[in-house]
Amino acid sequence: DSDSLITNWPYYRDFPDWLVGAGNDILAVSDYGCVHGGAWFVHSPDQGDDWQRTPKNGMIESGIRDVLYTDGKLFAGTVNGIFRSDDQANTFNRKNEGLDAASIRQILKTGNGRWWVRTNDEILSSDDEGQHWTVRQAPPQESFCFQQLGLSYTPKRIFFDGCPPEYSEDNGETRQPIPFDFPMWNNCISFACIGDTAFMVHNYKLYYWSDDETEIRLMDLPPDNTATLLLSISSDDNRLLVNGLYKNLVGEGDGWIWD
């Protein structure tokens, strides 16, 4: 039942899980591997009042790395490529043409209905909801960080993390370097986007770049009594989390809190 599922999840918090949905439909997805025998897909048709585990026919038993739900379609990125469900995770179909059953690290949807995936080796896009995939970026021949980075976007720009990082203003058709003087010895950047603003951590500092601005600016942060070195960044809806060496920084709205 729903109570046992909810109370069990925090105990296994080292395993990835996702909560996605739209309207009354909510899907909870968890990949507990050997702990529970594989991936769980649990569906609620009434905003979480009732839950039922789905049969997930056609889905592999584990190895989920990212999940995205939009327009009634659920995409699951796994260690064996992309699977798509159009019926609330009851059945899945593999969508791997052009992927060669690659291990998926991230799924993203940007403007004009374009889908993106990052694998262990490449960045690919699809303009037909995952039916076919086209390689957009292969890893640089001399790069130690390609697998650690990801994709992010604002309404105006897509950001391709890399060494050096790039961005696009035409939905990924062309890319150009980030307009900032990053030192070559440490030019791998952690990105996160909220609304029309991209935030980035580089060289232990936090920067931001709004869609209506042409320059990247240094973010003023509240003072703290420790010399916290900022390392990476992530976002969750309207909240920003900056991971530091000694403390984390949480930003929401116009306020920042050291945690």
Rg over alpha carbons: 19 Å
How helical, in percent, are the residues?
under 10%
Strands across the major sheet, in which order?
1-2-3-4
Q: Beta-strand level of the residues, as a percent range? A: 35-45%
Mean pLDDT across the residues is: 77
Separation of the first and last Cα atoms: 34 Å
Count of individual helical segments: 1
Shape by Cα distribution: globular
Itemize the secondary structure elements and their pairings.
Layout: H1 2-8, E1 17-22, E2 25-31, E3 39-44, E4 52-53, E5 64-70, E6 73-78, E7 81-85, E8 93-94, E9 104-109, E10 115-119, E11 123-126, E12 134-137, E13 151-153, E14 158-160, E15 166-168, E16 176-177, E17 190-194, E18 197-202, E19 205-210, E20 217-218, E21 230-236, E22 239-244, E23 248-252, E24 255-258
Antiparallel strand pairs: 1-2, 2-3, 3-4, 5-6, 6-7, 7-8, 9-10, 10-11, 11-12, 13-14, 14-15, 15-16, 17-18, 18-19, 19-20, 21-22, 22-23, 23-24
